[in-house]
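User: I'm curious whether this sequence folds into something compact or stays loose and floppy. Could you predict its structure so I can see for myself?
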Amino acid sequence: EVQLVESGGGLVQAGGSLRLSCAASGFIFDDYDIGWFRQAPGKEREGVACISSSDGSTYYADSVKGRFTISSDTVYLQMNSLKPEDTAVYYCAAGLCTSVLRLNEYEYWGQGTQVTVSS
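Assistant: Here's the prediction. I'll summarize afterward.
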């Protein structure tokens, strides 16, 4: 059974940092790219960042460029200079990483971890 479990969410003040981790079991990471997505209350789930397992290419949503870093060495999303608009449930997913961060290209999903940024 494939499982993805996110951790590292929490409450942080604007300007602060958090590191989200994604633990996986039941599949080989090298066979899938990893993406991070988020869903704010009342909004659709959107892509945040992804990384290719084949060549390490990374893609970021414009809203997080320069502030977030994705890594697959130990699967994490480093989030710096957080803003209140970053508040959302964050999900890691395994699938295909492309520049458009399309949800339907991801096969496996975690349950999500809450990130709340206070102003």
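Summary: The mean pLDDT is 94. The CA atoms of residues 93 and 109 lie 4 Å apart.
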